């Protein structure tokens, strides 16, 4: 299973998002960081809308996602951009 697929599965399971997009941006960073994942998947962007984010600050939302994806970060995911919103909030994406 790819890093992207594992991220999607983890976030679906734990957050039940209404909207989820996981974007592999690794090709923008080729040669930037050694690929210890062995998959070429080193830089990811996560965009999600989930009810659980209602009432949370931006920092709390990021910590929630980072905590869930800690195993991927520990395994070599070099960068994780998080764009998290609650339902009804305006997003630029």
Descriptive report:
This protein is of the alpha+beta class and 93 residues long. It has a single domain (3-85), classed as GMP Synthetase, Chain A, domain 3 (2-Layer Sandwich). Helix content is 31%, strand content 22%. The protein is built from three helices and three strands, in the order H-E-E-H-H-E. It has helices at 3-15, 58-68, 70-74; strands at 19-24, 43-49, 79-85. A three-stranded mixed sheet has the order 1-2-3, covered by helices on one side. The radius of gyration is 13 Å and the shape is globular.
Brief description of this entry?
It contains 3 helices and 3 strands; from the N terminus they run αββααβ.
From the alpha carbons, calculate the radius of gyration and give it in angstroms: 13 Å
Strands ordered across the widest β-sheet: 1-2-3
Oligomer: single chain
Shape: globular
CATH architecture: 2-Layer Sandwich
CATH superfamily: BolA-like
How much of the residues is beta strand, in percent? 15-25%
Q: How are helices and strands ordered from N to C?
A: HEEHHE
Query: How many angstroms separate the termini?
Result: 27 Å
How many domains is the backbone divided into?
A: 1
Q: Could you give a short account of the major beta sheet?
A: 3 strands, mixed
The CATH topology annotation reads as GMP Synthetase, Chain A, domain 3
């Amino acid at each position: 299973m790819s890093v992207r697929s594992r991220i999607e599965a983890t976030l679906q399971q734990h957050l039940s998002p209404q909207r989820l997009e996981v974007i592999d941006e690794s090709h923008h960073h080729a040669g930037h960081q050694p690929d210890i994942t062995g998959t070429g998947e080193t830089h990811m962007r996560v965009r999600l809308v989930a009810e659980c984010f209602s009432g949370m600050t931006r920092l709390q939302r990021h910590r929630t996602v980072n905590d869930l994806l800690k195993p991927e970060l520990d395994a070599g995911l070099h960068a994780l951009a998080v764009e998290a919103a609650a339902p009804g909030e305006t997003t630029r994406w």
